[in-house]
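haha ok so turns out i had the wrong file open the whole time. this is the CORRECT one, sorry everyone. sequence first:
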Amino acid sequence: MKDRDIGPKTISPPRRRRVTLGETLAVIAALISGLTLYLNWSDKRDARADKAAESRRASDRAARLVLDARVDGGKRLLLAPTQAGQIVQSQIIRFPAALKLSPVATTGEPRIEARWFADALKRARDKAKLPDDSLGDESLPVEITTRFVADGETRVDTALYDIGYSIAGKWLTGHELTLRGLSLVSRGPVQHPQVRLDARWATTVKGRS
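then structure:
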């Protein structure tokens, strides 16, 4: 009996299992949940970053002092911060060396009084050969160092200001000085503050003589 030739057997591929609708929905739900968690985390991270940036900006604003002046009868300037929440504790006002004046210190009542420097300014103007009567407003540079409280912290600010004033000569009573206001020139401490102050005075005198 002859052996039969047996050809290669055909192997049927395994049957693929179909993914059920429930499994598909479960995968979609997991993806949506993961995306939601990521978006929530991203939003919170951005919110924290925005809050930190705003806190830094608020701190910078609190540390930045600008003084405003209200004229009191022409003989005194009542000073106050332009930003709410800043409370001045004390100040030191320095004058140009040409006036030959010591610094003036105030505590609790920020102000500039004409009597502190009126006579010295008149002498300095005479020495610089400035006119007896001012044409418009004149300016006297001063350096003001202010110790103040903001956001519960004590801070120190140093800045160069111009005091606006006018002066009029009178034959019998001499010259009368009238204060007009205060203007910020530059802020921040420098290595040689008196040099900066005197340079400002020299520029002022040169422009008026």
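The chain has a mean pLDDT of 85.
again sry for the mixup
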